[in-house]
Amino acid sequence: MPAVVPNLTLNNGVEIPQLGFGVFQVEPARTADVVLDAFDAGYRHIDTAQMYKNEAGVGEALARSGLDRSDVFITSKLNNGFHEPQAAHDAFERTLEALGTPYVDLFLIHWPLPKVGDFVDTWQALEALYATGRIRAIGVSNFHEHHLRRLAETSTVTPAVNQIEVHPYLSQNPLRAYGREHGIVTEAWSPIAQGKVLGDPELVRIGGAHGRTPAQVALRWHLQRGDVVFPKTTHRERMDENLALFDFELAEEEMAAIEALDRGMRTGPDPDEFNWVPQD
Ligand SMILES: NC(=O)c1ccc[n+]([C@@H]2O[C@H](COP(=O)([O-])OP(=O)(O)OC[C@H]3O[C@@H](n4cnc5c(N)ncnc54)[C@H](OP(=O)(O)O)[C@@H]3O)[C@@H](O)[C@H]2O)c1
Q1: Is 7-192+228-234 CATH 3.40.50.2000?
Q2: Closest residue (by CA) to atom 47 of ligand 1?
Q3: Which of 65, 136, 156, 210 has the fewest CB atoms found within 10 Å of its own CB?
Q4: Residue 274 Cβ < 6 Å to ligand 1
Q5: What confidence tier does 114 reach under pLDDT thresholds 50, 70, 90?
Q6: What does pTM read for this prediction?
């Protein structure tokens, strides 16, 4: 019996399953089969991106699954080469085509690229697409607080989410607090730091007390903090493991012990330094 994943409500009333499935680094040719396994395990929220080159695999899985479009929450993200407004519009059309669906649930600016151009222009392109009704909610990814403040000063739509790197070694509490105060849900990417936190003695200890794995402890910590997560795995048994989070609870002392693991460790780049634009 698949777990029942709770929804969070975004600032425009749209509901998002708090636990989903990420497909970063899932090979395009394998994506449809992997996502079909994820659907079979019970996931109903898929996080993809133009940059991952596997939106078509997500679309194929949706078509083959027999699920209704409305049963699945799909996020994609604007690639770094398409920040110019007309390029953003064109890229969004290609996303719909690849997914084979008339709309996406959530569409994000993937990176702010502060040295490439002005993300405010890009955000206004997303606002225009949102107004057409083909995106249910728009948001950003990898935005620092100063990027969010600039959007607040210049734009009309508040991002529904900010998708940022968060895990026990990078707790991001000030940025998460800014989001909470301004109605922006935090989505925690690399929630287990791509496996780098799994050998941590505290996570092992706490897992032992609950009969759970370190991955389950870390993911449960995110959920109890109120963030959205979408761990990635290509292994079916890990899909089940990462979904089995709703029949145990971490105590306050355990939550605090995990908070104390923060060491400001990024597995990915700092968004202020990252200005990479793909050439294809
Ligand atoms: N917005 C952004 O810039 C950004 C950046 C990075 C990621 N993301 C999103 O966040 C999602 C998750 O992040 P991520 O893929 O970087 O990392 P992650 O979910 O923290 O970790 C994935 C890695 O952990 C392994 N793993 C998963 N579950 C496990 C388990 N229960 N036990 C042991 N190992 C396990 C996976 O291996 P196997 O696959 O071999 O099982 C994979 O190597 C991505 O897929 C993507 O959707 C967004």
Answers
A1: no
A2: 22
A3: 156
A4: no
A5: confident
A6: 0.98
Quickly state the pLDDT bin for 280 (edges 50, 70, 90): confident
Domain extent listing, the chain: 7-192+228-234
Expressed in angstroms and rounded, the spacing between residue 14 Cα and the centre of ligand 1 is 25
What are the structure tokens assigned to 160, written together? 């529904």
Report the 10 Å Cβ neighbour count for 178. 20
Atom of ligand 1 nearest to the CA of 232: 19
Contact 41, 240 (CB under 8 A): yes
Two structure tokens written together for 73: 């929450």
52 is catalytic: yes
State the helix-helix crossing angle for 201-210 and 252-259, rounded to 10 degrees: 160
Amino acid at 166: V
Active-site residue among 52, 103, 169, 178? 52
- Of 142, 135, 133, 140, the residue nearest 155 (C-alpha): 140
Locate all alpha helices (DSSP H) within the chain, ordered by sequence.
28-41, 55-65, 85-99, 119-131, 145-154, 173-181, 201-210, 214-225, 236-243, 252-259
**Nearest residue by C-alpha to atom 48 in ligand 1:** 189
Burial label for 270, CB within 10 Å (0-12, 13-18, 19+), is: exposed
